[in-house]
Batch of 2 targets.
Target 1
Amino acid sequence: MRTILLATANQDKAKELKAMLGADFEVLTMKDFGIDIDIIEDGLSYEANALIKVRALQPYVIGKDLVIMGDDSGLSVDCLNGAPGIYSARYAGDNASYTDNNKKLLKEMADVPEDQRGAAFITVIAMILADGQERCCEGLVRGKIAFDYCGAGGFGYDPLFIHEESGRCYGEMTKAEKNQLSHRAVAVEKAREILKQVL
Ligand code: ITT
């Protein structure tokens, strides 16, 4: 079995990636590896930030036969010119909680009519393969921003994002349902294809 080391401090994200990849790979977290570092995400794109995350772990795994995988994700709202975008984790300020960010988004969009509430959820996965090659892939799904919280499932902006294709809010889905069709699921499928070819 091949090993993937996840370059994320976000346990909610790690759980989703483990659920999606766990049957085919041994999926380890930074904690499993005893890596306790703060990674500064100062890139100007999802791809740049995803690469920053995986590159930060590279010195800890020299000579180990594994894949480092990280993702950078965000919600891009049409009427906010793509905000919060790459700043999704810090939308309501440094150290903002999921609730702080959701409250701010609802407030910003309080007067936006239904037909202008379009948005996209985006994930870019970056990987460093055992031979040092870097690969990136993107998952993007369209949807719209709800007028109020819908459901209590998931994490982050899940209670506010209505997935276009299914017509359902991420927050109302079970973990398994979200992991079948989410932006992260789309990116993971592409990553899986890359890994199938190279491993
Ligand atoms: P790492 O960088 O350690 O992976 P992070 O939380 O900072 O963790 P991101 O910058 O990629 O990760 O994520 C930005 C924010 O977007 C995140 O904190 C959540 O609020 C939100 N987010 C990411 N993926 C999400 C998802 O699947 N559903 C809902 N919200 C999500």
Target 2
Amino acid sequence: MIITIDGPAGTGKSTTAKTLADRLGFEVLDTGAMYRAVALAVIRHRVEPDDEAAIQPLLRETRVQVQGPKVWLNDEDVTELIRDPEVSQAASRVASLPVVRRFLMELQRSAAKGRNIIAEGRDQGTVVFPEAQVKFFLTADPAERAERRRRELAARGVCRSIDDVLAEQNERDRRDSSRDMAPLVPAPDAILIDTTNRSIEEVVALMEEYARSCRGR
Ligand code: DC
């Protein structure tokens, strides 16, 4: 069974995916982490994140693996490195390139084969798993999302002003929603949940109830 959770950054996708997966006995597929790993490879090769011609050959020597919370790039554990703000921006830029999207879509589909998966990202319910039995799309007030992100960065020792975080978030939102291939939009059959002023517990309870009812059908 496949459950998808899509939505912009800071809406609680990762936390709700993990908690829901624990309750249902599913595994999580963090697809944003895959885009981040490709972005890190691109940065390290000093290639511009929009340079499709240069990135295409690079992908042939790029191996990305995601297992639960751990992310590997060519056998190197990059779990922490990919969370840097520089990688966030580059990830959103490489994510506009069809060659990168096709590369990662194949990985995502093969990672899900034969498993019970909660796939979270931007296009999981629309493009990668249109056949998923349960689809959620999370939204939240931009100021609250930025504040969540600021706290998350601070907890990792990266101190940013709320204005900087909000500006970067707006730029990523704009790019992720306006790209030609697989833009960030809810699937027509997705359940929309606004997580502003809702606890993780409340959101997961809603999701769990819905997922269990679909499972029983
Ligand atoms: O969820 P995240 O912030 O870790 O994702 C990083 C970037 O990757 C995000 O700005 C857009 C891109 N992304 C995407 O285009 N499609 C996905 N399924 C997941 C992430």
